Amino acid sequence: MQILSIIRIVGLLVALFSSTMLLPALVAFGYRDGGGAEFVSSFLIALLLGGMLWFPNRYHKKELRSKEGFLIVVLFWTVLGSVGAVPFILSDAPNMSVPEAFFESFSGLTTTGATVLTGLDDLPKAFLFYRQLLQWLGGMGIIVLAVAILPLLGIGGMQLYRAEIPGPVKDTKVTPRIAETAKVLWSIYLLLTLLCALAYWLAGMTLFDAICHSFSSLSIGGFSTHDASIGYFNSGAINLITVCFLLIASINFGLHFTVFTHMPVRLLTYLRDPEVKVFLGIQLFLFLFCAVVLLQHNHYEDWLETLNHALFQSVSIGTTTGYNTTSYADWPSILPILLMTSTFIGCCAGSTGGGIKVMRFMILFMQGMRELRRLVHPRAVYTLKLGHKAVPERVVEAVWGFFATYIILFVLFILALIATGMNELTAFSAVAATLTNVGPGLGDVAANFSSTTATAKWLLVLAMLFGRLEVFTLLVLFTPAFWRS
Asked: Cα(121)–Cα(21) distance, rounded to whole angstroms?
Protein backbone atom coordinates (compact mmCIF):
# COMPACT_ATOMS: atom_id res chain seq x y z
CA MET A 1 0.00 0.00 0.00
CA GLN A 2 1.50 3.31 -1.14
CA ILE A 3 0.47 5.24 2.00
CA LEU A 4 2.75 8.25 1.46
CA SER A 5 1.60 8.62 -2.15
CA ILE A 6 -2.00 8.46 -0.98
CA ILE A 7 -1.39 11.13 1.68
CA ARG A 8 0.24 13.32 -0.96
CA ILE A 9 -2.76 13.01 -3.29
CA VAL A 10 -5.24 13.71 -0.50
CA GLY A 11 -3.22 16.78 0.48
CA LEU A 12 -3.40 18.08 -3.08
CA LEU A 13 -7.16 17.54 -3.17
CA VAL A 14 -7.70 19.34 0.13
CA ALA A 15 -5.59 22.26 -1.10
CA LEU A 16 -7.62 22.40 -4.32
CA PHE A 17 -10.86 22.10 -2.37
CA SER A 18 -9.85 25.06 -0.18
CA SER A 19 -10.26 27.35 -3.19
CA THR A 20 -14.01 26.65 -3.19
CA MET A 21 -14.22 28.58 0.11
CA LEU A 22 -13.23 31.77 -1.71
CA LEU A 23 -16.35 31.83 -3.88
CA PRO A 24 -18.83 32.11 -0.98
CA ALA A 25 -16.42 34.60 0.61
CA LEU A 26 -16.83 36.78 -2.49
CA VAL A 27 -20.62 36.35 -2.23
CA ALA A 28 -20.45 37.47 1.42
CA PHE A 29 -18.44 40.58 0.56
CA GLY A 30 -20.82 41.34 -2.30
CA TYR A 31 -24.05 41.07 -0.30
CA ARG A 32 -22.50 42.25 2.99
CA ASP A 33 -24.85 40.13 5.10
CA GLY A 34 -22.24 38.02 6.90
CA GLY A 35 -20.13 34.92 6.43
CA GLY A 36 -17.05 36.44 4.82
CA ALA A 37 -14.71 36.00 7.78
CA GLU A 38 -15.79 32.38 8.32
CA PHE A 39 -15.05 31.40 4.73
CA VAL A 40 -11.70 33.19 4.60
CA SER A 41 -10.73 31.42 7.84
CA SER A 42 -11.95 28.09 6.43
CA PHE A 43 -9.91 28.67 3.26
CA LEU A 44 -6.75 29.24 5.29
CA ILE A 45 -7.39 26.19 7.51
CA ALA A 46 -8.04 23.92 4.52
CA LEU A 47 -5.04 25.27 2.59
CA LEU A 48 -2.79 24.76 5.62
CA LEU A 49 -4.08 21.22 6.16
CA GLY A 50 -3.60 20.36 2.50
CA GLY A 51 -0.08 21.77 2.56
CA MET A 52 0.80 19.80 5.69
CA LEU A 53 -0.33 16.57 4.03
CA TRP A 54 1.31 17.30 0.67
CA PHE A 55 4.63 18.99 1.41
CA PRO A 56 6.40 16.19 3.37
CA ASN A 57 5.31 13.65 0.75
CA ARG A 58 5.65 15.75 -2.41
CA TYR A 59 8.25 13.46 -4.00
CA HIS A 60 6.28 10.23 -3.48
CA LYS A 61 4.88 9.67 -6.98
CA LYS A 62 4.09 6.04 -7.64
CA GLU A 63 1.56 4.27 -9.84
CA LEU A 64 -1.62 3.36 -8.01
CA ARG A 65 -3.19 -0.06 -7.93
CA SER A 66 -6.95 -0.59 -8.00
CA LYS A 67 -7.21 -1.21 -4.25
CA GLU A 68 -5.39 2.06 -3.54
CA GLY A 69 -7.80 3.80 -5.89
CA PHE A 70 -10.71 2.62 -3.74
CA LEU A 71 -9.00 3.89 -0.59
CA ILE A 72 -8.31 7.29 -2.14
CA VAL A 73 -11.91 7.64 -3.31
CA VAL A 74 -13.21 6.97 0.21
CA LEU A 75 -10.62 9.32 1.73
CA PHE A 76 -11.55 12.06 -0.71
CA TRP A 77 -15.20 11.97 0.31
CA THR A 78 -14.60 11.62 4.05
CA VAL A 79 -11.77 14.17 4.24
CA LEU A 80 -13.40 16.73 1.95
CA GLY A 81 -16.77 16.24 3.65
CA SER A 82 -15.06 16.89 6.98
CA VAL A 83 -13.19 19.96 5.69
CA GLY A 84 -16.44 21.17 4.16
CA ALA A 85 -18.00 21.26 7.64
CA VAL A 86 -15.49 23.87 8.89
CA PRO A 87 -17.44 26.99 7.76
CA PHE A 88 -20.58 25.68 9.48
CA ILE A 89 -18.63 25.02 12.69
CA LEU A 90 -17.10 28.51 12.70
CA SER A 91 -20.35 30.30 11.96
CA ASP A 92 -22.73 31.93 14.44
CA ALA A 93 -25.45 32.28 11.80
CA PRO A 94 -26.28 29.49 11.22
CA ASN A 95 -25.32 28.31 14.70
CA MET A 96 -24.64 24.57 14.33
CA SER A 97 -23.24 21.83 16.54
CA VAL A 98 -20.41 19.64 15.23
CA PRO A 99 -22.74 16.72 14.27
CA GLU A 100 -25.08 19.17 12.50
CA ALA A 101 -22.18 20.79 10.62
CA PHE A 102 -20.87 17.41 9.44
CA PHE A 103 -24.40 16.29 8.52
CA GLU A 104 -25.00 19.39 6.38
CA SER A 105 -21.59 19.18 4.69
CA PHE A 106 -21.82 15.48 3.85
CA SER A 107 -25.43 15.90 2.75
CA GLY A 108 -24.31 18.58 0.31
CA LEU A 109 -21.22 16.83 -1.01
CA THR A 110 -23.01 13.49 -1.44
CA THR A 111 -25.92 15.34 -3.14
CA THR A 112 -28.36 13.92 -0.59
CA GLY A 113 -30.19 17.18 0.13
CA ALA A 114 -31.24 16.33 3.70
CA THR A 115 -30.85 19.35 5.96
CA VAL A 116 -30.84 20.28 9.63
CA LEU A 117 -31.31 23.99 8.87
CA THR A 118 -34.46 26.05 9.16
CA GLY A 119 -35.03 29.70 8.34
CA LEU A 120 -33.12 29.51 5.06
CA ASP A 121 -34.70 32.73 3.79
CA ASP A 122 -32.94 34.67 6.56
CA LEU A 123 -29.50 33.05 6.33
CA PRO A 124 -26.51 34.92 4.88
CA LYS A 125 -26.26 34.48 1.12
CA ALA A 126 -22.73 33.12 1.44
CA PHE A 127 -23.90 30.02 3.34
CA LEU A 128 -26.82 29.47 0.97
CA PHE A 129 -24.45 29.64 -1.99
CA TYR A 130 -21.93 27.36 -0.29
CA ARG A 131 -24.51 24.62 0.32
CA GLN A 132 -25.49 24.67 -3.35
CA LEU A 133 -21.84 24.71 -4.44
CA LEU A 134 -21.11 21.60 -2.36
CA GLN A 135 -23.86 19.77 -4.20
CA TRP A 136 -22.66 20.91 -7.60
CA LEU A 137 -19.12 19.74 -6.88
CA GLY A 138 -20.36 16.41 -5.58
CA GLY A 139 -22.78 15.91 -8.44
CA MET A 140 -20.42 14.70 -11.12
CA GLY A 141 -17.90 13.58 -8.55
CA ILE A 142 -14.96 15.51 -7.25
CA ILE A 143 -12.83 12.53 -8.23
CA VAL A 144 -13.72 12.88 -11.91
CA LEU A 145 -12.68 16.52 -11.71
CA ALA A 146 -9.51 15.49 -9.93
CA VAL A 147 -8.44 12.96 -12.53
CA ALA A 148 -8.70 15.67 -15.19
CA ILE A 149 -6.22 17.81 -13.24
CA LEU A 150 -3.98 15.41 -11.34
CA PRO A 151 -2.47 13.74 -14.45
CA LEU A 152 -0.81 17.08 -15.09
CA LEU A 153 0.89 16.62 -11.71
CA GLY A 154 2.11 13.12 -12.50
CA ILE A 155 -0.78 11.13 -11.00
CA GLY A 156 -2.58 8.38 -12.92
CA GLY A 157 -6.35 8.38 -12.87
CA MET A 158 -7.87 5.21 -14.33
CA GLN A 159 -8.02 3.41 -10.97
CA LEU A 160 -9.86 6.36 -9.41
CA TYR A 161 -12.25 6.59 -12.33
CA ARG A 162 -13.15 2.90 -12.11
CA ALA A 163 -13.73 3.18 -8.37
CA GLU A 164 -15.90 6.30 -8.65
CA ILE A 165 -18.09 5.91 -11.74
CA PRO A 166 -21.36 4.22 -10.69
CA GLY A 167 -23.14 1.38 -12.38
CA PRO A 168 -22.74 -2.36 -12.98
CA VAL A 169 -20.61 -1.87 -16.13
CA LYS A 170 -18.31 0.82 -14.78
CA ASP A 171 -15.16 -0.85 -16.14
CA THR A 172 -16.10 0.28 -19.65
CA LYS A 173 -13.90 3.11 -20.86
CA VAL A 174 -15.58 6.08 -22.54
CA THR A 175 -12.33 7.13 -24.20
CA PRO A 176 -8.82 5.69 -24.07
CA ARG A 177 -7.59 8.63 -22.01
CA ILE A 178 -9.39 9.21 -18.73
CA ALA A 179 -8.26 12.84 -18.43
CA GLU A 180 -9.89 13.68 -21.76
CA THR A 181 -13.04 11.85 -20.71
CA ALA A 182 -13.27 13.70 -17.41
CA LYS A 183 -12.79 17.06 -19.11
CA VAL A 184 -15.52 16.38 -21.66
CA LEU A 185 -17.91 15.13 -18.95
CA TRP A 186 -17.31 18.26 -16.88
CA SER A 187 -17.73 20.44 -19.98
CA ILE A 188 -21.13 18.86 -20.60
CA TYR A 189 -22.01 19.23 -16.92
CA LEU A 190 -21.00 22.92 -16.93
CA LEU A 191 -22.88 23.63 -20.16
CA LEU A 192 -26.08 22.05 -18.82
CA THR A 193 -25.68 24.03 -15.57
CA LEU A 194 -25.37 27.30 -17.50
CA LEU A 195 -28.42 26.47 -19.62
CA CYS A 196 -30.41 25.61 -16.50
CA ALA A 197 -29.41 28.85 -14.75
CA LEU A 198 -30.35 30.86 -17.84
CA ALA A 199 -33.74 29.14 -18.08
CA TYR A 200 -34.45 29.80 -14.39
CA TRP A 201 -33.45 33.46 -14.74
CA LEU A 202 -35.65 33.97 -17.81
CA ALA A 203 -38.53 32.29 -15.95
CA GLY A 204 -38.39 34.89 -13.16
CA MET A 205 -35.81 33.80 -10.59
CA THR A 206 -33.25 36.30 -9.37
CA LEU A 207 -29.76 35.71 -10.74
CA PHE A 208 -28.61 34.43 -7.33
CA ASP A 209 -31.48 31.94 -7.02
CA ALA A 210 -31.10 30.86 -10.66
CA ILE A 211 -27.41 30.00 -10.21
CA CYS A 212 -27.96 28.28 -6.87
CA HIS A 213 -30.85 26.15 -8.08
CA SER A 214 -29.06 25.23 -11.29
CA PHE A 215 -26.29 23.81 -9.07
CA SER A 216 -28.67 21.60 -7.12
CA SER A 217 -30.78 20.65 -10.15
CA LEU A 218 -27.94 19.31 -12.30
CA SER A 219 -26.41 17.56 -9.30
CA ILE A 220 -29.77 15.97 -8.37
CA GLY A 221 -29.11 17.47 -4.94
CA GLY A 222 -32.29 19.15 -3.77
CA PHE A 223 -30.93 21.94 -1.57
CA SER A 224 -32.75 25.24 -1.98
CA THR A 225 -32.22 28.81 -0.86
CA HIS A 226 -35.74 28.94 0.59
CA ASP A 227 -37.58 26.93 3.24
CA ALA A 228 -40.44 26.40 0.77
CA SER A 229 -37.98 25.01 -1.82
CA ILE A 230 -39.18 25.45 -5.43
CA GLY A 231 -42.68 26.08 -4.08
CA TYR A 232 -41.43 29.51 -2.96
CA PHE A 233 -41.57 30.75 -6.55
CA ASN A 234 -45.14 29.53 -7.20
CA SER A 235 -44.42 29.32 -10.93
CA GLY A 236 -45.57 26.65 -13.34
CA ALA A 237 -42.79 27.61 -15.77
CA ILE A 238 -40.09 27.16 -13.11
CA ASN A 239 -41.61 23.83 -12.10
CA LEU A 240 -41.52 22.60 -15.71
CA ILE A 241 -37.92 23.78 -16.22
CA THR A 242 -36.92 21.94 -13.05
CA VAL A 243 -38.59 18.72 -14.21
CA CYS A 244 -36.84 18.89 -17.60
CA PHE A 245 -33.36 19.38 -16.16
CA LEU A 246 -33.88 16.77 -13.45
CA LEU A 247 -34.72 14.23 -16.14
CA ILE A 248 -31.66 15.26 -18.18
CA ALA A 249 -29.36 14.96 -15.16
CA SER A 250 -30.85 11.55 -14.34
CA ILE A 251 -29.62 10.07 -17.62
CA ASN A 252 -26.24 8.36 -17.92
CA PHE A 253 -23.59 11.01 -18.59
CA GLY A 254 -21.76 8.45 -20.69
CA LEU A 255 -24.78 8.64 -22.99
CA HIS A 256 -24.61 12.45 -22.93
CA PHE A 257 -20.95 12.07 -23.87
CA THR A 258 -21.85 9.95 -26.90
CA VAL A 259 -24.59 12.30 -28.05
CA PHE A 260 -22.67 15.56 -27.51
CA THR A 261 -19.62 14.30 -29.37
CA HIS A 262 -21.66 13.07 -32.36
CA MET A 263 -24.32 15.77 -32.74
CA PRO A 264 -26.78 15.76 -34.41
CA VAL A 265 -26.45 12.21 -35.75
CA ARG A 266 -26.71 10.56 -32.34
CA LEU A 267 -29.59 12.64 -30.92
CA LEU A 268 -31.96 9.67 -31.15
CA THR A 269 -29.51 7.61 -29.09
CA TYR A 270 -31.43 8.63 -25.98
CA LEU A 271 -34.63 7.00 -27.21
CA ARG A 272 -32.81 3.85 -28.33
CA ASP A 273 -31.15 3.27 -24.97
CA PRO A 274 -33.07 0.55 -23.06
CA GLU A 275 -32.24 1.99 -19.63
CA VAL A 276 -33.49 5.46 -20.58
CA LYS A 277 -36.74 4.02 -21.92
CA VAL A 278 -37.39 2.10 -18.71
CA PHE A 279 -36.43 5.12 -16.59
CA LEU A 280 -38.82 7.43 -18.46
CA GLY A 281 -41.53 4.77 -18.27
CA ILE A 282 -41.16 4.61 -14.48
CA GLN A 283 -41.37 8.39 -14.20
CA LEU A 284 -44.49 8.45 -16.40
CA PHE A 285 -46.14 5.76 -14.27
CA LEU A 286 -45.38 7.63 -11.04
CA PHE A 287 -46.82 10.86 -12.45
CA LEU A 288 -50.02 9.26 -13.74
CA PHE A 289 -50.59 7.24 -10.58
CA CYS A 290 -50.09 10.27 -8.34
CA ALA A 291 -52.34 12.42 -10.52
CA VAL A 292 -55.19 9.86 -10.54
CA VAL A 293 -55.08 9.32 -6.75
CA LEU A 294 -54.95 13.07 -6.04
CA LEU A 295 -57.85 13.73 -8.41
CA GLN A 296 -59.90 10.96 -6.77
CA HIS A 297 -59.32 12.47 -3.33
CA ASN A 298 -59.89 16.07 -4.54
CA HIS A 299 -56.68 16.99 -2.75
CA TYR A 300 -56.31 20.27 -4.69
CA GLU A 301 -58.89 22.76 -5.90
CA ASP A 302 -58.57 22.18 -9.66
CA TRP A 303 -57.09 19.59 -12.00
CA LEU A 304 -54.33 21.88 -13.33
CA GLU A 305 -52.93 22.39 -9.84
CA THR A 306 -53.18 18.65 -9.26
CA LEU A 307 -51.25 17.82 -12.42
CA ASN A 308 -48.65 20.48 -11.60
CA HIS A 309 -47.89 19.09 -8.14
CA ALA A 310 -48.19 15.45 -9.24
CA LEU A 311 -45.67 15.91 -12.06
CA PHE A 312 -43.20 17.92 -10.02
CA GLN A 313 -43.22 15.78 -6.88
CA SER A 314 -43.17 12.44 -8.70
CA VAL A 315 -40.13 13.48 -10.76
CA SER A 316 -38.41 15.23 -7.84
CA ILE A 317 -38.68 12.23 -5.52
CA GLY A 318 -38.41 9.59 -8.24
CA THR A 319 -35.09 11.06 -9.41
CA THR A 320 -33.83 11.24 -5.78
CA THR A 321 -33.68 15.07 -5.88
CA GLY A 322 -35.99 16.07 -3.03
CA TYR A 323 -37.26 19.47 -4.16
CA ASN A 324 -40.75 20.41 -2.94
CA THR A 325 -43.62 22.49 -4.23
CA THR A 326 -45.92 21.04 -1.59
CA SER A 327 -45.68 18.63 1.32
CA TYR A 328 -46.08 15.26 -0.39
CA ALA A 329 -46.03 13.68 3.09
CA ASP A 330 -49.58 15.05 3.50
CA TRP A 331 -50.86 13.27 0.38
CA PRO A 332 -53.02 10.11 0.65
CA SER A 333 -50.83 7.57 2.42
CA ILE A 334 -50.18 5.29 -0.55
CA LEU A 335 -48.43 8.09 -2.45
CA PRO A 336 -45.70 9.04 0.06
CA ILE A 337 -44.84 5.36 0.54
CA LEU A 338 -44.87 4.74 -3.24
CA LEU A 339 -42.62 7.71 -3.95
CA MET A 340 -40.24 6.86 -1.12
CA THR A 341 -40.05 3.28 -2.40
CA SER A 342 -39.37 4.51 -5.95
CA THR A 343 -36.18 6.19 -4.73
CA PHE A 344 -34.63 2.74 -4.33
CA ILE A 345 -34.79 2.39 -8.11
CA GLY A 346 -33.47 5.92 -8.62
CA CYS A 347 -31.83 7.16 -11.79
CA CYS A 348 -29.80 5.72 -14.64
CA ALA A 349 -26.34 4.31 -13.99
CA GLY A 350 -23.64 6.92 -14.57
CA SER A 351 -25.96 9.85 -13.74
CA THR A 352 -25.70 12.32 -10.88
CA GLY A 353 -28.68 10.72 -9.13
CA GLY A 354 -28.90 8.17 -6.34
CA GLY A 355 -30.67 4.89 -5.70
CA ILE A 356 -29.77 1.36 -6.74
CA LYS A 357 -30.02 2.47 -10.42
CA VAL A 358 -32.47 1.49 -13.13
CA MET A 359 -30.01 -0.78 -14.96
CA ARG A 360 -29.51 -2.96 -11.90
CA PHE A 361 -33.26 -3.36 -11.45
CA MET A 362 -33.60 -4.27 -15.13
CA ILE A 363 -31.00 -7.01 -14.67
CA LEU A 364 -32.69 -8.20 -11.47
CA PHE A 365 -36.06 -8.36 -13.22
CA MET A 366 -34.66 -10.24 -16.21
CA GLN A 367 -32.87 -12.67 -13.93
CA GLY A 368 -36.11 -13.28 -12.04
CA MET A 369 -37.96 -13.99 -15.28
CA ARG A 370 -35.15 -16.30 -16.39
CA GLU A 371 -35.48 -18.34 -13.19
CA LEU A 372 -39.23 -18.69 -13.81
CA ARG A 373 -38.57 -19.99 -17.33
CA ARG A 374 -35.99 -22.42 -15.96
CA LEU A 375 -38.66 -23.91 -13.69
CA VAL A 376 -40.65 -24.77 -16.80
CA HIS A 377 -37.68 -25.73 -19.01
CA PRO A 378 -34.82 -26.78 -16.67
CA ARG A 379 -32.44 -27.71 -19.51
CA ALA A 380 -32.95 -24.60 -21.63
CA VAL A 381 -30.20 -21.98 -21.87
CA TYR A 382 -31.33 -18.38 -21.52
CA THR A 383 -29.09 -15.36 -22.10
CA LEU A 384 -29.86 -12.02 -20.51
CA LYS A 385 -29.72 -9.09 -22.94
CA LEU A 386 -29.77 -5.33 -22.52
CA GLY A 387 -30.77 -3.99 -25.89
CA HIS A 388 -28.91 -6.26 -28.31
CA LYS A 389 -25.98 -6.99 -26.01
CA ALA A 390 -25.67 -10.04 -23.81
CA VAL A 391 -25.12 -9.34 -20.11
CA PRO A 392 -22.08 -11.28 -18.78
CA GLU A 393 -22.86 -13.68 -15.96
CA ARG A 394 -20.24 -11.93 -13.83
CA VAL A 395 -22.28 -8.72 -14.06
CA VAL A 396 -25.47 -10.56 -13.07
CA GLU A 397 -23.69 -12.02 -10.04
CA ALA A 398 -22.33 -8.58 -9.10
CA VAL A 399 -25.80 -7.03 -9.30
CA TRP A 400 -27.29 -9.73 -7.07
CA GLY A 401 -24.46 -9.24 -4.60
CA PHE A 402 -24.93 -5.48 -4.63
CA PHE A 403 -28.69 -5.75 -4.13
CA ALA A 404 -28.38 -8.20 -1.24
CA THR A 405 -25.73 -6.07 0.48
CA TYR A 406 -27.79 -2.91 -0.06
CA ILE A 407 -30.87 -4.42 1.57
CA ILE A 408 -28.86 -5.81 4.50
CA LEU A 409 -27.31 -2.37 5.13
CA PHE A 410 -30.75 -0.78 4.87
CA VAL A 411 -32.15 -3.07 7.57
CA LEU A 412 -29.10 -2.62 9.83
CA PHE A 413 -29.33 1.17 9.62
CA ILE A 414 -33.05 1.07 10.46
CA LEU A 415 -32.39 -1.09 13.52
CA ALA A 416 -29.57 1.22 14.62
CA LEU A 417 -31.80 4.30 14.34
CA ILE A 418 -34.64 2.62 16.23
CA ALA A 419 -32.10 1.86 18.96
CA THR A 420 -31.49 5.63 19.29
CA GLY A 421 -35.18 6.13 20.11
CA MET A 422 -36.50 6.96 16.63
CA ASN A 423 -39.94 5.61 15.70
CA GLU A 424 -40.27 2.98 12.96
CA LEU A 425 -41.72 5.16 10.17
CA THR A 426 -39.19 7.91 10.72
CA ALA A 427 -36.31 5.40 10.87
CA PHE A 428 -37.45 3.71 7.65
CA SER A 429 -37.79 6.97 5.74
CA ALA A 430 -34.63 8.53 7.21
CA VAL A 431 -32.51 5.60 6.04
CA ALA A 432 -34.27 5.51 2.67
CA ALA A 433 -33.73 9.26 2.26
CA THR A 434 -30.02 9.13 3.04
CA LEU A 435 -29.03 5.76 1.56
CA THR A 436 -30.72 6.62 -1.76
CA ASN A 437 -29.54 10.27 -1.48
CA VAL A 438 -33.04 11.70 -1.92
CA GLY A 439 -33.07 14.05 1.12
CA PRO A 440 -36.52 14.59 2.66
CA GLY A 441 -38.17 11.73 4.48
CA LEU A 442 -41.47 11.03 6.24
CA GLY A 443 -42.61 11.22 9.83
CA ASP A 444 -40.39 13.39 12.03
CA VAL A 445 -37.93 14.04 9.17
CA ALA A 446 -40.48 15.15 6.59
CA ALA A 447 -39.38 18.79 6.87
CA ASN A 448 -35.79 18.48 8.10
CA PHE A 449 -33.50 16.33 10.26
CA SER A 450 -32.92 18.84 13.07
CA SER A 451 -34.96 16.78 15.58
CA THR A 452 -32.76 13.68 15.24
CA THR A 453 -30.20 12.88 17.95
CA ALA A 454 -26.46 13.40 17.49
CA THR A 455 -25.93 9.64 17.25
CA ALA A 456 -28.63 9.36 14.58
CA LYS A 457 -26.98 12.16 12.58
CA TRP A 458 -23.63 10.35 12.55
CA LEU A 459 -25.34 7.12 11.46
CA LEU A 460 -27.13 8.96 8.66
CA VAL A 461 -23.85 10.55 7.52
CA LEU A 462 -22.47 7.03 7.15
CA ALA A 463 -25.60 6.02 5.22
CA MET A 464 -25.05 8.96 2.85
CA LEU A 465 -21.50 7.80 2.19
CA PHE A 466 -22.61 4.23 1.52
CA GLY A 467 -25.25 5.51 -0.90
CA ARG A 468 -22.95 7.93 -2.72
CA LEU A 469 -20.08 5.44 -3.02
CA GLU A 470 -22.42 2.66 -4.15
CA VAL A 471 -21.84 0.45 -1.09
CA PHE A 472 -18.94 -1.73 -2.27
CA THR A 473 -16.42 1.10 -2.70
CA LEU A 474 -16.72 1.82 1.03
CA LEU A 475 -17.51 -1.69 2.26
CA VAL A 476 -14.42 -3.23 0.65
CA LEU A 477 -12.27 -1.27 3.11
CA PHE A 478 -13.74 -3.32 5.97
CA THR A 479 -12.54 -6.66 4.54
CA PRO A 480 -9.26 -8.13 5.89
CA ALA A 481 -8.23 -9.19 2.36
CA PHE A 482 -8.14 -5.53 1.27
CA TRP A 483 -5.34 -4.70 3.73
CA ARG A 484 -3.15 -7.63 2.86
CA SER A 485 -0.18 -6.73 0.65
From this structure: 21
